[in-house]
Amino acid sequence: xxxxxxxxxxxxxxxxxxxxxxxxxxxxxxxxxxxxxxxxxxxxxxxxxxxxxxxxxxxxxxxxxxxxxxxxxxxxxxxxxxxxxxxxxxxxxxxxxxxxxxxxxxxxxxxxxxxxxxxxxxxxxxxxxxxxxxxxxxxxxxxxxxxxxxxxxxxxxxxxxxxxxxxxxxxxxxxxxxxxxxxxxxxxxxxxxxxxxxxxxxxxxxxxxxxxxxxxxxxxxxxxxxxxxxxxxxxxxxxxxxxxxxxxxxxxxxxxxxxxxxxxxxxxxxxxxx
Length: 274
Prior knowledge:
The protein has 274 residues and is an alpha/beta fold. The chain has one domain: Uracil-DNA glycosylase-like domain (Uracil-DNA Glycosylase, subunit E, 3-Layer(aba) Sandwich). The protein is 34% helix and 9% strand. The radius of gyration is 19 Å and the shape is globular. The longest helix is centred in the last third of the chain and has 18 residues, at 181-198.
């Protein structure tokens, strides 16, 4: 492990252990967190390159409930229709998301948050829903928890531009409330189309709502994390972990997230950065 990776681990609050007989030759102590993560630094938007068009997006069958919870699993009893606005490539899909009025969230949002990053990435990282910073910037994982995610990725030798970032909900729920099942139903279809376009080698879900929607389960995040699941007909490896916003409130769980990233690296250790 080089000095830079040790610095990012220190920023995450994780101790890197080493043998005593090597301690004398150890590299200098990691810099303070303030030197590793600059809170004033903006989250850089990555230029993306459209890829060839593919077939139009399919709707997702999801059971609708009225409670603000995502505990109900996907069934074949109810289908939420998504309008066909444009071709099913990246640009057309983003137009559909920007114009979507299929639930009431479009009335309270500032911006739809589509996704950003390398559209040929091998890693896809998905959060539950945009927050205030994302709503303003149109960028997933913005603000303080975005900086933490950047540091976590850099700790395993990756950059934000090497992965693709998105959220299940494309609009911020008022006051950051828990997503409703019908909202997850509608936006899961957009998310599934993003997965089809990207064809990632591994999916990392940072949140319980996303994990439940993609895995069709009622299990909690604690029950789901720590092992490799598989998504869809292609059986894409899927790993469940804590959202960065949770880690800011519960720093002791950073060690769990570090283990989850190590698990993802064992599944997909190399990335084709284009």
